[in-house]
Write a structure and sequence with these properties.
Helices cover about 45% and strands about 15% of the residues. It has about 325 residues and is of the alpha/beta class. The chain has two domains: about 230 residues, Rossmann fold; about 90 residues, Rossmann fold. The strands form two sheets. A six-stranded mixed sheet has the order 1-2-10-7-8-9, with helices on both faces. Strands 5-4-3-6 form a four-stranded parallel sheet.
Length: about 325
């Protein structure tokens, strides 16, 4: 994909203006306890003796998705708004589109896997969306989406591979740079790649020297496989981080990652769950597994960090099913010692 086809800084800045007042400007938290663990694991002392954390789990709907989905719905034509939109999601994109539709007066249908996290499905319905649970695997869920879209003449809004969605997500990157102008390293979890595409585009276009690292679960590595193949490939994701279980990377998100992201690392589910446990025990923050994935990779020394560098990690979501917290924490790996 040509460079001029990518989502540029001007588009990200414009999207930020569109969504202003409809989403939160989330805080940049910090943790000295996390910095101590990072030093043990990677043997690098972080700048300011703390790890910085972009709190998107405190965003509207409990994840970053409200940013991009609000930008996408705001870009609909009057005819598209009248017809209504349809999307597919494991949960967080469903809530993001449901919230955006309610805020902007657009009917929303979300198609989710039959085994979707119940609290996420209930939340999407709570925002006013029609929720359809169908499909044992994501290919069946996508087939259900296509059937309903064709039958009802709905407008398909992609959960991640979309210019407005990526631009809206990029607003989080602009906020990181405003709150931590001398940031050296930013770490972001990857599902379909929409968040890291927007954040990386915003940061690298403003400050090319910043290093961007993506993190995928071993059982849900659509972007890693796409980079190896040179094109998107379909996978059957199996990670505990359901918010990252995209069945493929998008063409646009793959191009954005190839252009702006320095590297993508893989971690296993037990490591991800150690991030959930650390956030709860030491930071007093409730994260879902997807929201703790970037944190976990950083805590376990999987991100190359030099002494004195300032590091910001994206906490991308907090929509965990609370009845499963005990089980998830029990499965967590021990922290580096």
């Amino acid at each position: 994909m040509a460079a001029d086809s990518l989502v540029d800084l001007a588009a990200i800045e414009a999207a930020r203006e569109v969504i202003a007042g409809r989403v939160h400007r989330t805080p940049l938290l910090s943790s000295t306890a996390a910095a101590t663990v990072v030093a043990r694991a990677g043997r690098a002392r972080l700048g300011d003796d703390r790890l910085y954390l972009k709190a998107e789990h405190l965003q509207k709907t409990g994840s970053f998705k409200a940013r991009g989905m609000t930008a996408r719905v705001a870009a609909l034509s009057p005819d598209e708004r009248r017809r209504g939109i349809i999307t597919v999601s494991a949960g967080n994109a469903a809530q993001g589109y449901a919230y955006a539709g309610a805020a902007l007066g657009v009917p929303v249908t979300v198609v989710m896997p039959a085994a979707a996290v119940r609290s996420k499905a209930d939340a999407a319905a709570g925002y006013g969306a029609r929720v359809v649970l169908e499909g044992e695997v994501m290919t069946e869920t996508f087939a259900a989406l296509e059937r309903i879209r064709a039958e009802e003449d709905l407008v398909f809004c992609h959960p991640f591979d979309d210019r407005e969605v990526i631009a809206g997500h990029g607003s989080a990157g602009l906020e990181i740079l405003e709150d931590l102008p001398d940031v050296d390293v930013v770490v972001v979890a990857i599902g379909g790649g929409g968040l890291i595409s927007g954040v990386a585009g915003a940061l690298k276009e403003r400050r090319p020297g910043i290093r961007l690292y993506g993190v995928e679960p071993i059982g849900s590595d659509a972007v890693t496989q796409a980079r190896a193949a040179g094109q998107p490939v379909r996978i059957q994701p199996t990670s505990v981080a359901d918010g990252l279980n995209a069945p493929f990377a998008g063409e646009l998100t793959l191009a954005m990652v190839n252009r702006y992201v320095d590297d993508v690392v893989l971690i296993d589910d037990a490591t991800i769950l150690a991030g959930v446990r650390f956030a709860l025990e030491r930071m007093k923050q409730v994260l879902e597994p997807a929201g703790a994935t970037a944190l976990a990779a950083t805590l376990f020394g999987r991100i190359p960090i030099r002494d004195g560098e300032r590091v910001a990690v994206m906490l991308s979501g907090g929509n965990v099913e609370v009845t499963r917290l005990g089980e998830l924490i029990e499965r967590a790996a021990p922290l580096p010692s």
